[in-house]
Specification:
By secondary structure, the protein is of the alpha+beta class. It folds into two domains: 2-214, no CATH class; 248-397, Alpha-Beta Plaits (2-Layer Sandwich). Helix content is 72%, strand content 10%. The chain has helices at 2-25, 31-56, 59-77, 85-109, 116-148, 150-168, 174-180, 182-238, 248-265, 279-286, 288-305, 330-345, 373-389; strands spanning 269-277, 311-316, 319-324, 348-350, 353-355, 358-366, 394-397. A hairpin with a 2-residue loop joins strand 4 and strand 5 (353-355). Helix 6 (150-168) runs antiparallel to helix 8 (182-238) and helix 10 (279-286) runs antiparallel to helix 11. The protein is rod-shaped and about 130 Å long.
């Protein structure tokens, strides 16, 4: 009777803990309460079947019946899980492998403890709890990745099962088999644990590398976005949003730099200060949208007139400025100003409306009419206003 109680407890521990471990590795549709109800049902079923086989004295059939029962119950529990059938089978086979490893370890470790029969049951329970704890605390995310890629790892799991099952289920006396084949089984268990450990370790490293690469890509992407944002900010800070030309701020920075470089290299350059004549009339007659199109056209025409080394900007409203680099003298600047003046006088056809404007252009030469940026711009502006006072539409060079 005492052996019956021990066998009953040990068998019940395996049955119940296998179910708990199975639903530890496989997410249930019914939560923790559902798992408890299933475990209680299996526990009662295991007790009834154990009593029946014990009364008939057929303990070998009992061990095989437990395996069959676990398989049948495993298939019956499949609809309760949130995985595919093949993933469920992979989990199920993994549970059987873990169960055989635990049985072997608890059986032989209990030999070193007092009351081996009771120690065997207690050790079996402790090992199950330890495995469940390890999965919950450390291994579950990695294991779920393994299950998702079950075709890659299924050969290893099947090989472990076939090697261990040869000793566990093709025998009439499991206890005698565990004792007789202690060392071959120890080698198999060691290799099995090493195989699972290698898979978990490798997958952890791969996951860490993937996470690092993902983080690096995210950083690169964020860096690219920041660079793009910085470029956009620079564009808004330095360029006119309507014409795309450099704005007043950028123009003054460039003018300061050109003055500094020209002092070192002893070069001459000119500033053309351009104010549109008749632009207000166009705005009043046709609206600001058409006026904006006129400003865009003016900006494009300025770019066509100057060289790549020169610099054109919109200072605001209908005022533009051009820096002409490396000129030989006043004549070169005046020739370009005449060209700009002429092209700006050409008619503009915008939305079936023909617009005509004129321009007043003031010129200042570095270093002839000023050696500082502010002085040069003031003199060019003064020359432009002199044209305005004399009837608009013309060119004038500032002279001391």
């Amino acid at each position: 009777m005492n052996d019956f109680i021990i066998n009953l407890l040990r068998g019940s521990v395996s049955s119940v803990m296998n179910v708990i471990l199975l639903f530890t590795l496989t997410k249930s549709k019914f939560g923790r309460n559902g798992i408890i109800i299933i475990a209680v049902f299996i526990f009662l079923f295991n007790i009834i079947s154990t009593i029946w086989f014990y009364l008939y004295g057929d303990l070998t059939s009992l061990s095989r019946f437990n395996l069959v029962m676990f398989v049948v119950i495993g298939l019956a529990l499949k609809p309760l899980a949130k995985v595919s059938f093949m993933q469920w089978c992979f989990n199920f086979l993994t549970i059987i492998n873990i169960s055989m490893i635990i049985v072997f370890l608890s059986f032989h470790l209990s030999r070193f403890l007092p009351m081996p029969h009771y120690s065997h049951t207690i050790l079996r329970l402790i090992l199950y709890i330890l495995v469940i704890f390890l999965f919950h605390r450390y291994l579950l995310p990695l294991y779920q990745s393994i299950v998702k890629n079950w075709p890659i790892f299924s050969v290893m799991v099947i090989c472990i099962f076939l090697n261990l099952a040869y000793y566990f289920y093709l025998t009439d006396d499991i206890q005698n088999t565990l004792e007789t084949f202690k060392w071959p089984l120890l080698l198999l268990v060691t290799l099995s644990i090493a195989a699972y450990g290698t898979v978990f370790y490798s997958l952890k490293k791969i996951t860490e590398i993937y996470a690092l690469q993902t983080e690096n890509l995210k950083i690169l992407n964020d860096t690219g976005l920041l660079h793009q944002a910085a470029m956009e900010l620079e564009k808004y800070a330095n360029y006119d949003t309507l014409t795309g030309l450099p704005n007043r701020r950028f123009f003054f920075e460039r003018l300061e730099r050109d003055v500094t470089e020209s002092k070192k290299q002893m070069n001459k350059f000119a500033i053309l200060f351009i104010d549109l004549d008749g632009f207000k009339d166009i705005n009043d007659a046709h609206g600001h949208e058409l006026g904006d199109e006129v400003l865009v056209t003016v900006g494009n025409r300025l770019l066509k007139c100057i060289r790549e080394t020169d610099f054109a900007a919109r200072l605001g409203g209908d005022e533009f400025a051009v820096i002409i680099h490396n000129i030989e003298g006043m004549g070169s600047a005046e020739n370009l100003a005449k060209r700009i003046h002429k092209i700006l006088q050409e008619g503009m056809h915008i939305d079936s409306i023909e617009c005509k404007i004129d321009s007043s252009i003031g010129i200042a030469i570095y270093p002839d009419t000023g050696k500082e940026a502010e002085t040069l711009l003031r003199h060019a502006d003064s020359a432009m206003y002199e044209v305005k006072r004399n009837g608009k539409g013309g060119i004038r060079t500032y002279i001391h």
